[in-house]
């Protein structure tokens, strides 16, 4: 199953221009480097939906926390710890 996992941007780590940026995102304490090219307006503190290392959209904090909790309860976030 393909899922988009919500996470919080904690740092913009690289910026080639206004579109091609990377960020460090926290998924319930697990941090991963992701690409922000599909959400050029995303900023530190925003919650984004991440699929295969790319943020594909922004969500509000309440929705992000609720979805992450559901995914965690289902055991769908364990693979974030790998790699």
Can you tell me about this structure?
This protein has 83 residues and is an alpha+beta fold. It contains one helix and five strands, in the order E-E-E-E-E-H. It has one helix at 61-73; strands at residues 5-15, 21-27, 30-35, 47-51, 54-59. A five-stranded antiparallel sheet has the order 3-2-1-4-5. The relative contact order is 0.24.
Task: List the main descriptive attributes of the protein structure presented here.
83 residues, alpha+beta, 1 helix, globular
Spatial shape: globular
- Flag low-confidence runs: none
Q: Provide a count of the helices.
A: 1
Task: Report the sheet with the most strands, covering strand number, pairing sense and barrel closure.
Answer: 5 strands, antiparallel
Give the N-terminus to C-terminus distance in angstroms.
Answer: 19 Å
Number of strands: 5
Order of helices and strands: EEEEEH
Query: Strand percentage, roughly?
Result: 35-45%
Q: Residue share in helices?
A: 10-25%
Major β-sheet strand ordering? 3-2-1-4-5
Radius of gyration, CA atoms, in whole angstroms: 12 Å
- Provide the structure class: alpha+beta
Mean pLDDT over the full residue set: 88
Task: Detail the topology: elements first, then pairings.
Blueprint: E1 5-15, E2 21-27, E3 30-35, E4 47-51, E5 54-59, H1 61-73
Antiparallel strand pairs: 1-2, 1-4, 2-3, 4-5
